[in-house]
Structure formats: C-alpha cells, structure tokens
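Researcher: Let's do a round of design. I'm pasting the structure tokens now; please hold your answer until I've finished.
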C-alpha cells in the first residue's frame, strides 16, 4: 500500500514538471515578437555627426553641446535636434548656435569685352550688350560685372571700294573755228578729273558772201567723263569695359553648436532581479541557446501542498504498520 501511494505521488509530480515549460514557451514567442517590432521602428542614423561633444552641469541643470563643422554649401537642417536619453537623463534642444568662420576677400575688377557690330551707332550698340557678365579670374576670384557705357569705343573693322562713271558738260562760245584743239582736254569737277569725251558744235554767227551764208563763229558743248570711287566700311569693332567687384573665399567653414539641457536626476541602477532558476549552490542555471526563458508563473509551487500531503500519508501508514508489527511480535493478532 505504501509503495502504491509513493508511485501515485511521483506520477503527479512528473505531470506538473512536464506542464510548466508551456508557459515559458508562450512567453518566449511574445518577447521575440516585441523585439522584432522595436527593431522595425529604430530611426535611421543622422546624416551628420558631431566633431565634439561638451558636457557641463550647473545648479542642477545638465547641458550637452554637440559641435558640427559644416561648409557654406552644407545644409544645417541635417543636424539632429530631436530629444534623446543619455546616462539616465533626458535631453531637450535649447538652441542651435552659428559661428561663421568663413573669410572672403573682395576687390574691384574690370574686363574688356570686344564684339563685332554692323553699325557705329552707339545707341544701337548698347541694345546688344549683355547687362551682366559672370567672370572667374585665374587667381580664383568670381563675381558679376556690368558694362561701363562711357568706355564704348567703335572702330572700322574693314573697307570695300566701289566705282562708277560720272560726266560733266562744258560750253565754249564764240570760237573762231570748230576745232577741238581750241577746247581743254580735261577739267576738274567735284574734286575729280574728267577728260574730254565728246563735242557738240553749234553756229554762233553767220556772214553772207555772194548771198551765201558763212559761219564765222562757233559754240562748242563739250562732254567730259571720268570714274568716281568710294570706300565703305564693311563692319565695326566695338570694345567696352565691364566693371564690378569680385570675391574669393579663403575659408568656408561654419560652426554649428546644438545645445541640449536636462533637469532630470540620473537614475541609479536597480539590483538585477533574476528570473532564472537557481541550482543547489544558488547560481543561475544558464539555458541553452534557443531555449525559452522561464515564465513568471513557478509551477514548482504546486509541489509544496502535494509534498505535505505525501509526507502525512507516509507517516500515517508507517505508524500503523509499525504498531501492527509490534503486536504481532508480542503474540497479538
């Protein structure tokens, strides 16, 4: 009878121990799901990183200053300004300070621009000039220049020569004879030299001899011809000065300082509450890789009342068996 009771108690304890890991397995799946969810919402890393971090504390207020070195071409909006936790404190942005370390040298500059024009009219030339000119010098200066109209100079780029025939007439009256030798062979007209080309003779006076008319005076109408030439400009070359200020940056660094503050007191680290089972020496039992952590529900607590009941039953039946043995020894039934 005693052996049967002990066997029943052992089977009950085995069922309790086999059912306990069910809670731990379910808890492991939930924790794995939470870990995956947290990993999915981790924000991306900032695009810029501080070159220096300075910490200070005064009157219970802690401050962190993150220093960034950017160029004039960088966008300061990339500097992280969100709240964050560090060493048990929660920090909030106070301000972003800007220190311009860039250095720029400025000087006056002029550049002569040459262009071709079909006219020498300055008013028409101004219409075709560019209102601004962007320049980059050999030594690294750059800027915008504007034309100085008082410096416009126009020169003929080239000539072409053309020619044509001109003529003039001269009248010579009261000549004694219709003789071409009595006429000049060339004349000057409008600065040109013309030569005799043709003569029209006319009677200027008539005498009668034996009743017949006889010319005694002549008028000559002479035609002179020659060649006239002219030289015309084929185009014009225009020069004009563009003037203005140019600059060169020798240092393009801008320092940005993000100032964060915190009034939270640093949290002290609480002693670790181990949920791992302990061995006989009081050390935590290390689980194998992939084994689910123990559930907060300790199934072994069920063994306490079962064990008490088992001990009571063993004592009861053990005492009764012992009395039966003594009575039999003494000769009693």
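Researcher: That's everything. Go ahead.
Model: Designed sequence:
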């Amino acid at each position: 009878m005693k052996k049967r009771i002990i066997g029943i108690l052992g089977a009950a304890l085995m069922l309790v121990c086999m059912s306990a890991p069910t809670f731990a397995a379910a808890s492991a799946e939930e924790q794995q799901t939470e870990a995956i969810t947290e990993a999915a919402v981790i924000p991306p890393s900032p695009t810029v990183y501080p070159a220096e971090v300075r910490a200070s504390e005064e009157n219970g207020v802690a401050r962190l200053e993150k220093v960034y070195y950017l160029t004039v071409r960088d966008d300061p909006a990339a500097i992280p300004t969100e709240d964050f936790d560090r060493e048990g404190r929660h920090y909030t942005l106070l301000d972003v300070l800007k220190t311009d370390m860039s250095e720029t040298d400025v000087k006056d500059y002029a550049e002569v621009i040459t262009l071709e024009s079909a006219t020498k009219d300055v008013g028409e030339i101004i219409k075709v000039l560019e209102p601004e000119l962007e320049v980059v010098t050999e030594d690294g200066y750059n800027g915008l220049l504007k034309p100085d109209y008082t410096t416009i100079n126009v020169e003929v780029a080239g000539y072409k020569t053309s020619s044509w025939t001109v003529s003039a007439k001269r009248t010579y009256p009261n000549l004694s004879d219709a003789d071409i030798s009595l006429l000049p062979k060339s004349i000057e007209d409008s600065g040109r030299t013309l030569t005799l080309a043709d003569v029209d003779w006319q009677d200027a006076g008539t005498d009668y001899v034996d009743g017949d008319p006889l010319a005694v005076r002549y008028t000559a109408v002479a035609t002179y011809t020659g060649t006239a030439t002219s030289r015309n400009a084929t185009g014009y070359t225009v020069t004009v000065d563009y003037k203005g200020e140019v600059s060169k940056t020798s240092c393009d660094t801008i320092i940005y300082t993000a100032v964060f503050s915190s009034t939270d007191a640093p949290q002290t680290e609480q002693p670790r509450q181990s949920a791992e089972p302990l061995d006989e020496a009081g050390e935590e039992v290390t689980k194998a890789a992939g084994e689910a952590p123990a559930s907060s529900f300790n199934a072994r607590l069920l063994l306490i009342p079962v064990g008490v009941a088992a001990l009571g039953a063993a004592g009861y039946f053990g005492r009764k068996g012992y009395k039966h043995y003594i009575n039999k020894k003494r000769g009693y039934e």
